[in-house]
## 1
Amino acid sequence: MKNVTGWLAELATFESQGIPCVLVTIVEEKGSTPRNAGTKMIVTAESLRLTIGGGHLEYKAIAIARQMLKEGTRQPRIERFSLGASLGQCCGGATVLLFEPMGQHNVPVALFGAGHVARALVPLLASLPCEIRWIDSRTEEFPDTLPAGVTKVVTDDPLDEVDTMPSGTYFIVMTHNHPLDLELTERILARGDFGYYGLIGSKTKWAKFQHRLAAKGFTAEQIAQVRCPLGIPQIKGKLPAEIAISVAGEVIATYSAQATLEEASPLRLVQPTHNHF
């Protein structure tokens, strides 16, 4: 009973603090193993609670869990391990681990530009499950106080910021510089692993960008991933607040749809590979 209340209390602590974590559970054991079925471990990006027995099995489990956190994975997965010599454990049995992402997984957002629309948009995004990097070269354009969950980045090299963001990032580009918008678009499309990309601009601007992107070798499929004009089409307003609400609505619709797809997917079962033996 003590073990059960222990992991529940640890999990509740992380959830109350809004810290994403992965609950690792031994769901099956065969032969000699370091811990019995039901044993749990909680892994965050920077800490560890409880143990599934130590050794290389635990090391591998921590690495898998932290990769899931880095990727923002919400779908549980199962991994099978043979506790042979290559895992550095002499038990000789086999273990099946269940990895369950827990807690709130904030959507990473990179917002380029600190103009009127961006200043209206950031408070809306900050009120959502988003972690925002707000990027511009003009420090005077940022408000004096930023909402929680927003990091101000003043840089003359915004293209470098594209490369620092994790897989699945939502990119939003609304700078005051059209050539920079095009460069950012090229850099973001070249990554190919973003969760969403919205570019502010008129249909005329986007038509010109499409032509230039195609001339630089981007495929029609790549170009079609860009939302431009961005935002919910039914909202036609031109005021900064109206555009901001439209964009925030599209962000919500996107991450809600992605979450629904993940929840509808069957439990991911990863068969044993040579790396586990």
## 2
Amino acid sequence: MFTHIMIGSNDLTRSKRFYDATFEALGAECGETDPRGRLIYTHKGGRLMITTPIDGHPATAANGGTIGIQAESPEHVRAWHAAGTAHGGTSIETPPSERPNGQFVAYMRDPDGNKLTVRSMPSSQG
């Protein structure tokens, strides 16, 4: 359904440090920079792109929006959360934990305020 998700950043260098660390914690590759200066992360068939706004106005986080990323295991979720908070992210909601549906979930905001979640599926939903 989606080709990619694009979010804005006011500091691409800071975003690259944050997203490289969090994607590496999930076992993914660090991001690439395209000729326009946008950061591109590919993981499990999905693509996240980060850019400075082309209209010249400051980037702002989506109110009510959340970007969900799949993790292999609860250990990857914990590693993602630890890497993100160590690189400028802010933990939100609850600490990384198992939900009643069996998913292991963590939430945080990136340094620009974008809301992210990473979750591993129960082995029966794999």
## 3
Amino acid sequence: MSHLLELRHLKTLAALRETGSLVDAAERVCLTQSALSHQIKELEGRIGASLFVRKSRPLRFTQAGKRLLSLADRVLALVADAERELNQLVHGEAGRLFMAIECHSCFNWLLPTIERFRGQWPAVELDFAGGFTFDPLPALAAEEVDLVITADPVALKSVVYLPLFSYEMQLALAADHRLAGRAFIEPQDLAEETLITYPVDRDRLDVFTRFLRPAAVEPRALRTAELTLMAVQLAASGRGVCALPNWVLEEYRAKALIAVKSAGATGVWPTLYAAVREESVTTAYVRDFLSQAREHCLAQLPGVRAPRGGAALAFDYWEN
């Protein structure tokens, strides 16, 4: 029974549980679907049991699969802790990590990562800078901040964009809205609507740059809300339509407080990035913070997925 299990097996099973599908799990661990299927069959052959029920929706693990997942939770956490400690020994553990966030819905998932990070890197000074009128990317290039969370990369000298995850921008409206019965929303549907947005420039709003502007559509009126909860409440009360990330809207949709629709037949899927200066890419505590943030989001935020294509490759480059 020696060498029955390998670390890659545990990572694959964890990815399969978190994504719920072979396709998405393969992306998560940077394999083709065929290679991932082969790896799972090989492991099942080694242990002599199936790990999950094929074609089950949602995915259901067998007792053998659940036992290995329990092992994965313990082992992968220990490996991550050991890698972190080694990084601290090799690269030192003190530094500064000032953050700015262009994604105004990101604080909820950032806070658990920050709380855990503080305990693991106590000598790293953490702080936030920003506000709706603050322009963080030039501040990053000028070394006023060290990390920016953004969905709108801008080419700047010495600034690198590391993809965290992709999400769907969805449209929220009152449950009894005239568009609530639609399968999805077309740009022209918003021509007679009040659009509720954050008080930022249109060039920083996906609903304009990726949805309305390409169709040359202008909403009837524009209303701003600084708080996400306020935007959702305005939409729920029939005072307009707001565009927010799918992970934000899922809680309210599940409670039937709002109707949630995709923007177009295939939806709008931006990618959220962490922007850092080029010299910070190899800084141990920066790498660890972003690894923890990405891992937390992919595991906990409903509806998000690993970046596809070039974005995923860019993150792999960063990790290596």
## 4
Amino acid sequence: MPRTSRAVKLAALPDGLPGPEHFSVVDVPVPVPADGEVLVRNRYFQVFPSLRTLIGGGVKGTPFPPLRPGDTLFGAAVGEVVAAPGVAGLRPGDLVRHWLGWREHAVMPAGQCAPLDGTLPDPAAHLGQAGVAYTALARDARVRPGDTVFVSGGGGGVGSLAGQIARLLGADRVVGSTGSPDKAARLVSELGYDAAVVRGGRPIAEQLAEAAPGGIDVLVDNVGGEQLQAAITAARPGARFVLVGTLAGQLAPDRSGTTAPVEIDTFQLIAKRIEMRGFGGLDDAGPRPEWTERVGAWLRSGDLTFPHVRVAGIEHAPRALQELIGGRHLGAVIVEL
């Protein structure tokens, strides 16, 4: 075992969107596990846009604490057990998922990591958002055969899977939104979308009316803002909306990343009987949730792909976060150690 390891810390609070200069990659002692704890050497960790919110002070009522200068960043990670003194069922070499990413080594109570059982064919796929996409569509939006589905942020970690999963669940037409014509073309050619609208050009409502002329039955909203307004306009009677993310507010350079205000016409909600709910979270109470079984089978059969970018080396993680915020990548962004 080495005596030191590397971790990414918040060096300074940004005035606006964070960049690599606001983080530092530092040497830290390799932690020593106590009885009942697990020492893990991380192999992959996820880069996710919600870090901007945590750096901005966090949101009351959400499960993650705010980040202050000097704090080590955190997030979903997959690692290999190095030592687990006094822990039954875990041995060196086992792969586990946990929330202490952004560091090469992590130590945690055994109850805070989950062994991987091979249900998903690629360990890195456990850092994707297939569980969120599947659960939002199948449980919260109750997608039915023949539905027209609109996914805002179709090129992101959730959206790049949601279009494919909506199709596999029986949706008749799937429309996504994204930030560039190149990504829009990839949504249609690679990710199961029938059409894509592009923010920053013509009004989203106008583009959505053309892409889904009969209206939409389901919205999986990762963005909010203008795209939520457009979805309300396009909604059919009885449409089901699931609010998963708020990227329009979260990544706004002139905001803190902790609020996402949007003006909506509540008359339309009432007149169209639109059901709108926040994403209910993953139900991981059982040893193997339904989504892992179905997603694993789809990945193995080739019916579902896991769009992602792997960035090699912890020293490149701050740049990867900047690129994610800037919309450079399609799908999930994962740092490989």
